[in-house]
Write a structure and sequence with these properties.
Elements: H1 3-8, H2 16-32, H3 35-61, H4 70-89, H5 95-124, E1 137-148, E2 151-162, E3 167-169, H6 171-176, H7 186-198, H8 201-210, H9 220-239, H10 245-254, E4 265-278, H11 284-289, E5 295-307, E6 311-313, E7 319-321, E8 325-329, H12 333-346, E9 354-359, H13 363-372, E10 377-380, H14 382-397, H15 402-416, H16 420-430, H17 436-452, H18 459-469, H19 475-481, H20 488-501, H21 510-524, H22 528-531, H23 533-540
Parallel strand pairs: 4-9, 9-10
Antiparallel strand pairs: 1-2, 2-3, 4-5, 5-8, 6-7
Helix pairs in contact: 4-5, 7-8, 7-9, 7-21, 9-21, 14-15, 14-17, 16-17, 18-19
The chain binds zinc ion.
Length: 542
């Protein structure tokens, strides 16, 4: 191929060598010119670029319809035919290849349509301040490239200065749901948030790539973090809806699904787990030399809330919840308390005749329950109570010995029969016969049972379950049999969060984990569409 043919035929493919040779020749020609001529050449280049840009802007800002030109449609058809031909020529290629090729073939036409549709939308937005709605001054045009589901799209938007707010505004960016500086479209914002709240960012990039999305260009991790901050803002506003008594009344009346037809029991389970954070990024070496550890463990406080009538059983008799709410935070018990209260109101706290709080024996939990849900019935998780008895049995009689088993068996039964007083008496009786260290341990357990005695009522539920199994349950017992005696629902929730936030070798910062945890909770609470309204339309459209 020669340089001459390539000039007469601009679509011809030039080899890299030819390109280089042309560039060298052009540089030599430029060097031969006088400085004045050189400057004139440069000026002309700049002017040409400016007029091309002005033409593009003029064309974009007058666009009124998003469509493909006949030539573009034909190019797409040609591309599609070529791809299909390749598939048909290869008998070993299956439906997977057909899916891949078709998806690739439509990407460019869809990108063009997305760009034009966004442009039409931008053109229709009045150039007013999004905050105070006044006409913006010193209006100008600027283009911006956004990464969309179909690839990069370039949009021209009018912008201007609001003297009242003292800010430059791009009203079309607000209308299109674009971040101030971030390059991701709302769909890619959502997918970044979804993927990174479910898996580490480095895996998410690869998964996205297989789904045909180029998220690496959006700075996946930063984008997810930005979305997490947005989720936190939304949550603050959601929780803040309870600032006045009238607001609380209003929210309590409404709940999430309107007034219920049947009275129901609302169950609240609370727990905590720890997360590893690195407090001083970049100073690990320095801190180690000073003999300090660079990481710390912090508590993540969690709660779940559900209606008992939303609990069912799988065919394998496993309990499942069809609807439930979550609260999770690294920001302390107070923060959990506010989030949980709001979630409980949304899930029917205002309508439930009975509220049941179930947890292990941690003091902060019962303080929270007393503070936020003073009318609620409190129940100590049965399995935690049993574990405390087993701890004494193993300590005194040896781990797994028949003596330990023999000592603990009647006491376990007493717990199930609501005879906590008898359990405490047995422990008190055991104590004087022990060594001093063991006495201390037993005393701790005595205090544990004394503090929790009122919360250890299991008998009626266990009896109701037995009656149900024997087919003798009364209507009231049928209801009671469904009451949980353990806090399995929150324990499984904690484990699920830990699958993402407590991996080997993983370190967090408080702003980092809180933001992602907030996204995860928003998703689980079924409120994803509050942040991503387009997600709602994808569920209803077909
Ligand atoms: Zn303004």
């Amino acid at each position: 191929m020669t340089t001459t043919t390539s000039l007469t035929n601009p679509t011809a493919q030039l080899s890299r060598q030819v390109h280089r040779a042309q560039a060298r020749e052009a540089a030599r020609a430029l060097a031969r010119l006088t400085p004045q001529v050189q400057n004139r050449g440069l000026t002309q280049t700049i002017l040409d670029a400016a007029s091309a840009k002005a033409a593009a802007a003029a064309q974009a800002t007058t666009l009124a319809k998003a469509q493909l030109a006949e030539a573009e449609l034909q190019a797409w058809r040609k591309d599609l035919d070529a791809r299909l031909e390749v598939i048909f020529a290869h008998p070993e290629q299956n439906l997977g290849e057909i899916e891949e090729q078709l998806a690739r073939s439509v990407k460019e036409p869809l990108r063009l349509l997305a760009q034009r549709a966004a442009q039409v939308k931008a053109n229709a937005v009045p150039c007013r301040c999004p905050k105070c709605h006044r006409e913006l001054k010193q209006q100008r045009l600027l283009c911006r490239t956004i990464h969309s589901r179909f690839g990069p799209v370039t949009i021209w938007r009018r912008y201007g200065w609001c003297p009242r707010c003292g800010q430059w505004h791009f009203p079309a960016d607000y209308a299109l749901g674009l971040g101030r500086k971030a390059p991701a479209s709302p769909y890619l914002q959502e997918i970044s948030a979804l993927l990174v709240s479910k898996m580490p960012a480095e895996q998410a990039v690869l998964v996205a790539e297989r789904l045909g999305l180029d998220l690496s260009r959006c700075g996946l991790h930063q984008e997810a973090h930005r979305q997490g901050l947005k989720a936190q803002e939304w949550r603050a506003q959601f929780v803040g809806q309870l600032d006045t008594w009238e607001q609380i009344q209003q929210v309590a009346r409404a709940g999430d699904g309107g007034p219920p037809t049947q009275p129901f029991t609302l169950v609240i389970e609370i727990d905590a787990w720890d997360i590893r954070e690195r407090d001083h990024w970049g100073k690990t070496q320095e801190l180690r030399q000073q003999g300090k550890k660079p990481e710390r463990w912090h508590w993540v406080y969690m709660a779940t809330v559900f209606r008992l009538d939303h609990r069912g059983q799988t065919e394998g008799k496993r309990a499942v919840l069809t609807q439930r709410g979550y609260a999770a935070t690294r920001l302390g018990v107070e923060a959990l308390s506010a989030q949980l209260y709001r979630e409980a109101l949304a899930r029917g706290l205002g309508q439930a005749p009975l509220v049941l709080v179930i947890a292990d024996g941690a003091l902060w939990i019962w303080n929270l329950a007393k503070d936020r849900f003073p009318q609620a019935r409190q129940r100590l998780d049965l399995f935690h109570a049993e574990e405390h008895l087993w701890a004494v049995a193993h300590d005194v009689y040896g781990h797994g010995t028949p003596q330990a088993q023999a000592w603990v068996a009647p006491l376990l039964q007493q717990i199930r029969d609501d005879q906590t007083v008898a359990v405490i008496a047995s422990l008190a009786e055991l104590k004087p016969r022990l060594l001093e260290a063991q006495q201390k341990k037993v005393q701790t357990q005595i205090e544990y049972f004394e503090h929790n005695a009122d919360r250890m009522k299991y008998k009626e539920v266990l009896e109701a379950r037995k009656a149900r199994e024997e087919g003798k349950a009364t209507a009231e017992q049928k209801q009671l049999a469904n009451h949980p005696v353990g806090s399995g629902a929150i324990e499984s929730a904690c484990r699920q969060y830990q699958c993402r936030f407590k991996r080997t070798g993983q370190f967090w910062t408080t702003p980092g984990d809180e933001a992602l945890m907030c996204l995860e909770t928003l998703w689980r609470n079924g409120r994803w569409d509050q942040l991503y309204p387009h997600a709602r339309s994808s569920a209803t459209l077909n």
